[in-house]
Amino acid sequence: MTISTNTFETHLREIAVETERLLSSLLEGEALAGEIARPRHLLAAMRHAVLNGGKRLRPFLVTSSAALFGGDGEAALRVGAALECLHCYSLVHDDLPAMDNDDMRRGQPTVHIAYDEATAILAGDSLLTYAFDIIVAPETALPDHAKTELVLALARAAGLGGMAGGQALDLAAENHRPDEAGIVTLQAMKTGALLRFACEAGAILSGASDTDRRQIRRFGEVTGRAFQIADDLLDLTADAATMGKATGKDAARGKATLASLKGQAWAEAELERLVSEAEALLAPYGARAAMLIEAARFVANRKS
Amino acid sequence: MTISTNTFETHLREIAVETERLLSSLLEGEALAGEIARPRHLLAAMRHAVLNGGKRLRPFLVTSSAALFGGDGEAALRVGAALECLHCYSLVHDDLPAMDNDDMRRGQPTVHIAYDEATAILAGDSLLTYAFDIIVAPETALPDHAKTELVLALARAAGLGGMAGGQALDLAAENHRPDEAGIVTLQAMKTGALLRFACEAGAILSGASDTDRRQIRRFGEVTGRAFQIADDLLDLTADAATMGKATGKDAARGKATLASLKGQAWAEAELERLVSEAEALLAPYGARAAMLIEAARFVANRKS
């Protein structure tokens, strides 16, 4: 079930390139059909938000899950691009002064710095809206029932009970520190829900069985937990290196994480445990699941 | 083809009551299915944004259009409620300090005043997301192809090429005054697109013919133009009464409107012309279209 790290990283980069190309074409004026003019300024802000050279981990999970279940590769790429638009909307809004107030992202000014706050709000709104457009557009070659299932699953992963709700809990956590269970819930919503959707989306668009969908959802949940703990660990250790003490950006903002509560050793052991759990969940699929398992390992071990 | 104003206003109020009841139930914690906790604070902000005693004109257009084409009344109410969530999201974001910076709406503090700015951003995001959830949810008894068509039409009415794009053009208009054609385009996007969608949605969910869809779309466009000119006129005359001179809030913000450019007499004549056009468009449907025609009259003549 193992493939080489090289094979995995090559494939991750290939999907990133294809996703970037598709996103760029989806965000050209011409591609946005409609009989009324489109504001160039807003479109430019959306491109700034999306075409940022990201790793495109979520699209990779969609396409790898679709490959496992025999789904159409082109449709998977489009669903991945839709998900990336939605992910990028959340970054634009999270970066706003009223939220996390971040000026830089990936070495570039954030959208409200490069443009202005009103444009950043509208660019986020438009990207969120466009994600649903891309999924149901005629160019996405999927049956209508798959499209409606994808829209429902994405709306639930992104809305009040998912990512947006998790961000609200995260902001509240600066004043009322949540306990361990509270942190787990918050993180499952804020970052876990979209990663789980990415995995499940591949199964939905492939018409996979309910059993397969449940299994890949659980894989997505486990991968999401690993993603978050790796993130917490990076925050803890990266800042420890630069600041010379064991406090990170999260701690500075008064945000407790599992890694900060339970320590670096616990976090490292938990990451190993989660990777094993991810492997066990996909064991029934044998070698065909190798790419997804590498993705879980990559998420757990990433250094940026 | 005429019905009494009383009949129309009674029906408008009935639909508003039913819509309000449905929205309240859709925005209860219990109704938002999902295995993870929902943040009460955010849900309360969403309720504040939506349950505000509005006229529910857009849901009324959806249900009246569905009635004309023989669509299911319950499904039409749900689509109307989804559209109202989306309309209310746009009001919450438009009211933000970075946008129109309004503290009050319908005699109540706006969401960022009653809660805070971050919560208002997230409440808007969540309402936008929830609109798509409601349309595709299993409880909305429509075939999958109608659901995907509704999602696509709504996403295009709301996104870069529609409402959000129109708001971007409107903000830009404060610095670069658009000419008459520019104002028409801006308003068709900012307020017209959702009103057109409301009319078209009734046809889509009823499985109406392409010819019927085109006709009701045009009716929606004409009604949208009447809505905007009536709005401009109210801004012009309401402020003229209170301020003792012929300048309104739009003028104070440096925003040109058709009514301010061409004068009150032109605007009043244009409203009459648009109502006649709306009547002519629905003449082929005879008495069954009476409620929609009254809606166009109401929009053109409204005093608030």
UniProtKB/TrEMBL annotation, chains A, B:
Assigned GO CC terms: cytoplasm
Cofactor requirements of the protein: Mg(2+)
Keyword Transferase: yes
Gene Ontology biological-process entries: terpenoid biosynthetic process
A single MF term (Gene Ontology): prenyltransferase activity
Keywords for the protein's UniProt record, in alphabetical order: Isoprene biosynthesis, Magnesium, Metal-binding, Transferase
InterPro entries for the chain: Isoprenoid_synthase_dom_sf, Polyprenyl_synt, Polyprenyl_synt_CS, Prenyl_diphosphate_synthase
Pfam families: polyprenyl_synt
PROSITE patterns per the UniProt record, alphabetical: POLYPRENYL_SYNTHASE_1
PANTHER family cross-referenced by the UniProt entry: FARNESYL DIPHOSPHATE SYNTHASE (PTHR43281)
Record-stated family: Belongs to the FPP/GGPP synthase family.
NCBIfam families (alphabetical): FPPsyn (NF045485)
Protein name in the entry: Probable farnesyl diphosphate synthase
Species of origin: Ciceribacter ferrooxidans
